[in-house]
Amino acid sequence: MTTITMSTGESLIFFGLIAAVTMFTRFLPFLLFPENKKTPKYVEYLGLVLPYAIIGMLVVYCLKNATPLAYPFALPELISVVSIGLLQKWRNNMLLSIGGGTLLYMVLVQAVFV
Fold first, then answer.
1. Residue 15 has pLDDT above 90, yes or no
2. In sequence order, what are the residues at sequence separation of 6 or more whose Cβ sits closer than 8 angstroms to the Cβ of residue 80?
């Protein structure tokens, strides 16, 4: 395994570029759609549907390696997904739901379904 080392100047350039690109992506919407200009309908539509699409993609990604035909029969995943849904329905708090479900999943795979 090789290790890549950078000099101080290279590090400053590297992190400077990262900061510049991050700032550019944050400022771009304000440059494209100033306050006095109406936001296009398709951008407003994307702002409404993309969060749900991304959450759906994350769920599929997280469950892609679940094995329902072998021990533990995807039970930790199923129990965690149900708990996330119940927590969200009960408290309507995304941080609590995701954090609680993640914590429950970690306990299940490390202590219960060993």
1. yes
2. 101, 102, 104, 105, 108
